[in-house]
Amino acid sequence: MFVPVVKKIIYANGVLLERALPAEGALTVQTGDEVEPFTKLGAVNTPNEHLLLSGVWGLVERVTEKRAVLLKTQVLDLPFVACTQQACSGELLVFPNPSELLEMQYLEKFAKNVHDKIIYIGDFINAPVFDRAVALGVAGLVGGGIDKQTFALAQKSSVFVGVFGGFGKIPTPGVVFEVLKEVPNRYVFVQGQRRLLRVPVPNGHRNAQPPTPQKLVKELAVGDLVQVFDLAHFGFTGKVESVQGDTICVILDKSKSLVCVKVPNIIGLSADTYDARKS
């Protein structure tokens, strides 16, 4: 049985990312220099010195005197289904997929350390969690799903909001959460207009296989990653257990329960292979 395919993880090489000082300062790197995430690029000399760190593994492509450095690197791109339009970067804080009732407790637990950070809050972003995140000064809030009313509030806010599942209580796809919790360096980049969360990775920290070409459709087989869209499990992801004509049985990532859906209420998922443990 053939179904449409959506790519959830995309490896991109030769990506250009800019790191900029908040005001004119002194830059300490030159074109062609190799950098790692904690390489100092420059600083602004104020009473509280502002350091500019690389945040990536790569090479200095261009230096704009006293202001900015353009870096060439490699990333894992995680596309958002929906997001606001801001661009931002910061340390990624990943909560361990708490239930909706516990999300606020996790946020309060880390309240002293979330300013200017990008937080993966869990499977659902609700209005109280969003309002509290704004009050705490976070740079961005990402999760699995969001209701339309909260998303409308987010569009009027300076805080970035993005979801990997969609509108409603839709869990984050398992393959995406695996990448988030294994980010090799906690610094990430958000490009809202491109609907991307960009995770820098070291050169060589991926499997030997090249990035897989994007397929528009594929024939489902046992073990394939899929996302189902029946009423009871809308947006849930899992692996194919069996294919019986136009009926596909899937073991869901979240509950490990078996559900059977009919085409067209299912799509295939793909992801570029990646192993954060390899060097």
Helix/strand/pairing category: mainly beta
Order of helices and strands: EEEEEEEEEHEHEHEHEEEEEEEE
* Largest sheet composition: 17 strands, mixed
Which regions contain 5 or more consecutive residues with pLDDT less than 50? 274-279
Assigned CATH class of the largest domain: Alpha Beta
What does this structure look like?
By secondary structure, this protein is mainly β. The chain folds into three domains: 2-7 and 211-271, SH3 type barrels (Roll), CATH 2.30.30; 9-73, OB fold (Dihydrolipoamide Acetyltransferase, E2P) (Beta Barrel), CATH 2.40.50; 76-200, Ribonuclease E inhibitor RraA/RraA-like (Glucose Oxidase, domain 1, 3-Layer(bba) Sandwich). Helix content is 13%, strand content 45%. It has a 17-stranded mixed β-sheet that branches. Strands 2-4-5 form a three-stranded antiparallel β-sheet, with no helix packed on it.
Compose a concise summary of this entry.
With 279 residues, this protein is mostly beta strands. 13% of the residues lie in helices and 45% in strands. The chain folds into three domains: 2-7 and 211-271, SH3 type barrels (Roll), CATH 2.30.30; 9-73, OB fold (Dihydrolipoamide Acetyltransferase, E2P) (Beta Barrel); 76-200, Ribonuclease E inhibitor RraA/RraA-like (Glucose Oxidase, domain 1), CATH 3.50.30.
